[in-house]
């Protein structure tokens, strides 16, 4: 009897201890709150709106949004920032709704908040996880100083098709690198604790496979095998879940013929049950409503499908708000399904501390101290320089001397409006640094700048109308193309070297900005051809949100620098690289094709049964008649002002068994005249397996810095974990056999050693 009593006491004590855990406290709080909520209030929490009446100087919220907030029919707002503006709707919710439930405030904070960093494709080209994490940390600090507590970032969609405009927001084509970047961004946004007021709820997107839209056309159909999903496209999302991301956004596309937002296998079976995700799932903008056009039914039907699939929050469409109660009454959905979605949203608010202090992100003294600070801008400048990829540098044309004269030419040479890049929602282009200003800042008065615009972005008037439909960032010079080129040629002949800053306007990439021709617009190319004829050294600074087709440019320019869209400090960063203040070390994370006919093109492709091996007249092989199979610039490619040599690969052993560890080393030497950084890349090939494998897969990298003449041995530790792959039954495992250990400067230029590894 005494023993039984002690056991009961111990059990009660254990229950009391468990009740004190943060998760138990949250569960108790949310359960009690939900017990007081009506069905309308629960459904209201599932409603995420954008205040249509919001302007910087007018009413904070439109009348209908205000009424819904008071009635407890709004769970969150997005598209509004600044603590003075955010305070009003938060006060409406806290002071006027029946249960005083605070709102979430979200925004697309994609590559910085008001301090704009390079576009994500550019950031990924740094291969610098520490700085990538810091960029998200700064963005979170600025966003929270501006009243936000939720950011719709990171976007981790794998993208193999540069026609797709949103490749600009991605980290490129590789799942390994993309997964590491996803984790770094989550750490940066969410920090170690939501107790800190400079951390935000991150939202990984777009779940899932959004980057595989057919023909590179945004919102288009996606159709792929499960093994392809798990091997190449799903890993970055899984990495974000493992890193503790607080929310997930569904994608617009279908998966297995069911749109993601209504896909129960995706949202419940995979995300929640298999991966263990416990946070909230929000749709993309009106994604529920768009399922009507997909052919899944009317608004009531598609809203019910989304809820039953496991989607919690409806962005803008108000399908949940207007139809779920009727569907509940008709037995199409259950009270449990509504409660579960409501609980997840309330839990997010609880974790952010909004029930303790709904105004904790609304300190009006913070913006002046924490946004667009000199320190933030200095970091943005450094990060932008590190994102640049040197594509060509014949005869050491770069770096330029800080003397003589420069012909600065091109539609982007003195443009301010297009420096930030796409999806810079809170960024102010008026505060961006132009290339012309950057050159003056870096080179000073010792360099004479002779400027001519040379060309508009395009002569396609319809395209200009489309580009200017949203924000009017494309200015058009009324002169004829011939007159502009004539002026540019005159300027070039008066100068020692030509810097032509050409490429895309920022809205030529990004959402709903797919292109079937990804070359530099013809009128800009006409300008370059005229400049080439002057015989002066021709340096191209390329701005784009995607890989471009650059065969003519590569054949004719003396040097080419891919600068992407660099953000607030773009002009200074470009000048830092051009004049050698920083030696470029960026490496491509997306393959540059020779022409659009090669697309999709990516390094980790598979072999066919008839692989082309370079014999020109060998007819029955997998090849093109009119262009080589290989790309113009491969994944991992990027030059430096110095040069590096690689030794042969040295293995710690050539036969291994089971869970042994292999050490693979190369000695890298700086054989040039400048101190430089190099990203040493590890690839592994598995030529014989139970399923066909990629020709190689990135499995590691190290970024090193070497002085002229300096050497360093770089060692990678390889375990069976890096040999694993998905089989046809989606088992993740490895098989014994021969493996190729490849180490090099990019995916095409590697040194290889083989190892036998039995299981």
Mean pLDDT: 95
Q: How is the main sheet built?
A: 6 strands, mixed
Count of individual helical segments: 23
Kindly report the oligomeric state of this protein.
single chain
Q: Determine Rg (CA atoms, Å).
A: 27 Å
Strand order of the largest sheet: 11-16-15-14-12-13
CATH superfamily of the domain at 387-598: Glycoside hydrolase family 3 C-terminal domain
| CATH top level class name of the domain at 387-598 | Alpha Beta
Would you identify the regions where 5 or more consecutive residues have pLDDT less than 50? 1-10, 53-63
Query: Helix- and strand-based class?
Result: alpha/beta
Distance between the termini: 55 Å
Assign the CATH architecture of the domain at 387-598: 3-Layer(aba) Sandwich
Percent helix range: 25-40%
CATH topology of the domain at 387-598: Rossmann fold
C-alpha geometry: globular
Number of strands: 27
Explain briefly what this protein structure is.
This protein has 759 residues and is an alpha/beta fold.
